[in-house]
Write a structure and sequence with these properties.
With about 550 residues, the chain is of the alpha/beta class. It is built from 17 helices and 20 strands. The radius of gyration is 24 Å and the shape is globular.
Length: about 550
């Protein structure tokens, strides 16, 4: 397992539309990313994950691709990308791209040909079916709500779309589709990209025959995840990608793997399988999405994350994350941005970042960004948010209640422009930002924190540097402590004769750490998010709200 460059990496997920605007049109772009490479190098990240930069009509903010080999006009040109890649590499960093191949845009030339007539050579590149009883071919619901089928009057058939109606699903059963995708992936690899995050990878295989999902009442679509998520045979498609494309270079591959549990992960990421480097699992954030108003159930979180750590120990590799472009800010979900912004942001960071796996940071997370403020339902830009609003209104919810719920759950929370300073538009643009800024940017921005070693940003930088300098924090064995403690997340990382103890109070109340297995008299505190209070040499100490500490446990002097 040792020696893969991506195991030692720290990944920074960058949402180009919201990162940095170079030309004043209010939309972030590739030259803007280039302008801030020094910041990312200073922070210590080694891999930049670019959310989709391909040509797109932006029905789903770039996750609807119209041309896999062209750059979105708003983001710049292919020459801009080539310069960005060269300058990233010159600084010792790498770039991975978002690979969206479960579906395309309805403006992709493949789909335009496919829908042109029933006997077009590309008709079978997508999933077309006749209607049934005057309606869709089956009762599947789209992941983004509403029917998963769109009627096309031109050819009198329906096409399948698991996401928006402008994102038709590719037919991975078709060998020509697989060949075309692999050819495109190799094309980007030949340009020098260092890997891919593969969007919706568990949805590429659909149940044979596309049967109805159970529990339908005959009056509308129903969730059908069992029929399009992790269906038997999907790994055959992953094998094709790995064999025909990924294996042609030393790259990092990260699958977005909804529906995969820890006990099912080894076939996807096992070192002996040759498929993917790692997967982004969904189990831990389903703790929040099941009840957005509930607080953190720390014991459940420990069980989930520890299960993943133990299941892949010695056989595979974890992707570690708390935030991404599809989630509201973790500080607003599980932290306390009003009373303990710094402490809770850094305690949450310490908890996940130092486990075994490759840590991912989503832009702005390193500043302790919280959810934004929405004043009306018109403030929401995300296509899923807009469809949820329509659905809730149809179910009789009042607009005020809808606004309250959407403020907690909308993906727009994580997509607000990056706050670079406290000046005009937070230094993001000289024009009108495509999405309103988080109103707390005068207090939460890069310029303010970059000169303050005690800031959230300063803490992330020290934490990244600590991990980079200590092999035990990359490859060391993970062991959970205090599994039933409702406040403390504590674990060890051990490699050879080096052991680290990580203790995080993830509550707004003081907590007492006690563990009989360690004598801290000869321990060195390597990282702490609050000034240490003196305590006698012992195996117990008090932690203030959201306090985190990382100790190197050493043997007693001879």
């Amino acid at each position: 397992m040792h020696g893969k460059w991506w195991q030692e990496a720290v990944v920074y997920q960058l949402y180009p539309r919201s990162f940095m605007d170079s030309n004043g049109d209010g939309i972030g772009d590739l030259p803007g990313v280039l302008a801030q490479l020094d910041y990312l190098q200073w922070l210590g990240v080694t891999v930049i994950w670019l959310c989709p930069i391909f040509r797109s009509p932006n029905d789903d903010n770039g996750y609807d691709i119209a041309d896999y080999r062209a750059i979105m006009d708003e983001f710049g040109t292919m020459a801009d990308f080539d310069r960005l890649m060269a300058e990233t590499r010159r600084r010792g960093m790498r770039i991975i791209l978002d690979l969206v191949v479960n579906h395309t845009s309805d403006e992709h030339p493949w789909f335009i040909a496919s829908r042109s007539r029933r006997d077009d050579p590309k008709r079978d590149w997508y999933i077309w079916r006749d209607g049934r009883n005057g309606g869709p071919p089956n009762n599947w619901e789209s992941i983004f709500r509403g029917p998963a089928w769109q009627y096309d009057a031109g050819t009198d058939q329906y096409f399948l779309h698991l996401f928006t109606a402008r994102q038709p699903d590719l037919n991975w059963e078709n060998a020509e589709v697989r060949d075309a995708i692999c050819d495109m992936v190799r094309w980007w690899m030949d340009k020098g990209v260092d890997g891919f995050r593969i969007d919706a990878i568990t949805h590429m295989k659909k149940a044979p025959g596309l049967p109805d999902a159970p529990a339908g009442d005959g009056h509308g679509p129903v969730p059908a995840y069992d029929f399009h998520m992790n269906v038997d045979g999907v790994l055959d498609y992953v094998d094709t990608l790995a064999r025909e494309a990924f294996s042609h270079g030393d790259i990092m591959t990260v699958g977005e793997a909804n529906g995969i549990g820890a006990d099912e992960a080894e076939p996807w990421v096992g070192a002996s399988r040759g498929r993917l480097s790692m997967i982004l699992q969904f189990e831990h954030w389903h703790l929040w999405s099941g009840d957005p108003r509930a607080g953190l159930d720390l014991c459940k979180l420990k069980r989930i994350l520890s299960h993943w750590q133990n299941a892949l120990e010695g056989v595979g590799w974890n992707a570690l994350y708390l935030e991404n472009h599809d989630l509201p800010r973790v500080l607003s979900r599980w932290g306390d941005p009003l009373q303990h912004r710094h402490a809770s942001a850094t305690a949450l960071a310490t908890m996940y970042f130092l486990m075994q796996g490759t840590p991912f940071i989503y832009q702005g997370q390193e500043l302790g960004m919280a959810n934004t403020v929405f004043h009306s339902l018109d403030d929401f830009d995300d296509v899923f948010a807009r469809q949820r609003i329509v659905e809730m209104r149809a179910n009789g919810m009042a607009d005020d209640d809808i606004l309250e719920e959407m403020a907690l759950t909308a993906r727009d929370n994580s997509r607000t422009p990056m706050p670079w300073n406290d000046g005009l538009n937070a230094g993001f643009t000289t024009g009108t930002p495509w999405l309103p800024l988080n109103p707390d940017y005068p207090q939460v921005n890069v310029a303010q924190q970059q000169t303050d070693p005690g800031s959230v940003l300063g803490y992330y930088r020290r934490m990244i540097a600590l991990r980079a300098s200590e092999p035990a924090l990359v490859f060391g064995r993970y062991r959970l402590l205090l599994a039933d403690d409702p406040q403390l997340y504590a674990y060890t990382r051990s490699l050879d004769d080096t052991t680290f103890l990580v203790v995080c109070n993830l509550s707004a109340r003081a907590a007492r750490y006690r563990h009989d297995g360690f004598n801290l008299e000869y321990a060195a505190c390597m990282l702490a998010n609050r000034p240490l209070l003196p305590h006698p040499p012992c195996n117990a100490f008090d932690l203030r709200p959201f306090e985190a500490r990382v100790y190197r446990i050493g043997p007693a002097p001879a």
